[in-house]
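[Primary structure, fold]
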Amino acid sequence: MPKLKTVSALALLWIWLVAAAYAQTQPTDSAQMHINSRAAVLVEVDTGTTLFSQAPDQVIEPASFTKILTLYLVFEGLRNNTIHLADPVWVSETAWRTGGSKMFVGVNSQVPLEELIKGIAVVSGNDACIAAAEHLYGSTEAFVAAMNKKARELGMNGSRFLNPHGLPAAGQVTSAGDMTRLATAYLNRFPEALRFHSMQEYTYNNITQRNRNRLLAKDSSVDGLKTGYVENAGYHLAATAKRDNMRLLAVVMGASKPSIREAECTKLLNWGFRNFALVEPVPESKPVATVAVWKGKADYCDLRPEVPIRILVPAAQKDQAHIEVDAPRDAVAPIAAGQPLGSVKVFVGNELKNTVPLVAATAIEQAGLLKRIWHTVARIHAIDWKWLAMIVGGVLAVLLLVLAAVRIVPKLKKRRRI
């Protein structure tokens, strides 16, 4: 038994030493970290805050990252109701003949748009990209023009696109920074797209293909986004993961192997989740303050922040976030929904991070005549006592002067008569 206890103690000591050594080797500052690829960026998606960047402006071929922009336009069309998931999409010979990775759509067949989205997001089908582009804009050329217009709108000033799928084309370029801008906007505007990007495999026409984003199977918090590869650029991976309430996006471009792009994205994600936290000092569902309402059909009005309040902080400071509310005690109806009524200040420790207007959560209509009269009288009684005393004192003084005048004037008249 003593031997067993000694062995157990030594084993525990060894585990503790290894864990301590590992913890000491993990970088806490982005300046200490290097990613084994041509370029890399890590952002917190909700706030758009860049946590790490390495050669973000280096010019590089986008490869299948191009498909994120293609899908952006598809989901924008769905949002605007110009196209629908159930739309039958005709597959032209041009789409059918497109080389590279394929969904294997049939020439002159009709494929539901939803299936094409799966074919693009999951198996990176170049044929599906051409079919979707022709369906949305009538021609590949018109679609590419729309791609470049959207890229400018998103601030992707170092990017130029020449096709919807990302196959090599002279002059088709981007950067890790631009792709991060695109992917962040895509995730924020179309979070529903992740139900497609998170699929680990897809079967079409009796052909099953696996998603090349292997992190989907290795990390349960990862639910997207896109891989890419062309010989001149190397291996790309945009990986997004959500843990607790925070979503991060890691973009790695130009790795030498698929395994390296996966390892480097994992390194970035783990580093980000370990060192940062997204705090929400004011839950969206809860009112921040309540004010009394005079002359309204309702007697109280809840106040909420004009926009959701989320603050990205170092993990060590996540419990230091607090708010200070500056709101009136009461307000007079009518009150419009969204009407500004105060503000809330957000602090981390003693540092002011943000000031957000407080607005009425609901509209409150003016009450009927009797309630308005009653509240007018009640408000007089609610006046500060000092002011009330001054007003009453002034009124009494005036009355006394009037009474005195009433008594003195007749006496003076009598004296004059005598």
In short: The first strand starts at residue 39 and ends at 44.
